[in-house]
Specification:
The protein is an alpha+beta fold. Helices cover 31% and strands 23% of the residues. The protein is globular, with a radius of gyration of 20 Å.
């Protein structure tokens, strides 16, 4: 028999947000509209709005931009990063190629090589400034124009940046700062990622990227500031 002073319902979740709230926040950070978050979570738009109200009340943040910029991560994810010897782990690497003509590049990689465009930004019908492609286990990203820190001094197009998707972005950034490796400051991008750049000893550029919780780069959509 339950204790007379025990409240019914689910036990209190140990994290600041519940798993459902984290999923909604992840969709928002990835630039999804409320309807898209609802479709991905197999729930109603009203449910998404309900979770967003709870998230705002818990965090004291009112705007979607403030929620995107909030640096919090789920306790389980932070614990997993801490279990790694260095406090972070690299999950995936994808080359990013700066191209001067995106339609021509897509015609080559998609049309001639048969790669599939997984996602792009901005959304169609706009000509994408960034696109992720796949063929089997191969992954490739294309970016219109310059992408590297020092691209202003380079010929247009032709540069390749190795993108590393990681868990524990802040930990690896702090480690590189301590080693005087001169990483750039961490920035949040319009499509939901937090990222910074650093060069290896041979001058090769690395983009170190962490998405919220979703599969990196494959569910990115342009943010639409719909009414929450």
């Amino acid at each position: 028999m339950p204790h007379p002073y025990t409240r019914p319902g689910r036990p209190r979740h140990p994290d600041i947000l519940t798993p459902a709230e984290w999923r909604v926040l992840t969709g928002l950070r990835d630039g999804l509209a409320n309807a898209e978050i609802a479709a991905a979570g197999n729930c109603s738009v009203e449910t998404v709005r309900f979770h967003l109200r709870n998230i705002r009340d818990k965090l004291g943040l009112r705007s979607r931009q403030a929620l995107r910029d909030w640096p919090g991560r789920p306790v389980e994810r932070l614990a997993a990063a801490e279990r790694e010897p260095r406090g972070w782990r690299i999950r995936e690497q994808i080359p990013l190629i700066a191209v001067p003509d995106m339609p021509r590049a897509l015609a080559f990689y998609k049309g001639l090589l048969g790669m599939e465009v997984i996602t792009s930004w901005p959304d169609p019908p706009a000509v994408p400034g960034w696109a992720a492609l796949a063929a089997g286990a191969a992954r490739l990203m294309l970016h219109q124009g310059h992408h590297r820190r020092d691209d202003a001094a380079r010929p247009r197009g032709g540069s390749i940046t190795l993108t590393l998707y990681v868990d524990g972005l802040d930990a690896i950034h702090a480690s590189l700062l301590a080693a005087k490796a001169s990483p750039t400051t961490i920035e949040r991008m319009p499509y939901g990622a937090r990222e910074f750049y650093v060069s290896d000893p041979n001058g090769n550029e690395l983009a170190i990227v962490e998405f919220a919780l979703s599969d990196p780069g494959y569910t990115i959509k342009r943010d639409r500031e719909d009414q929450a």
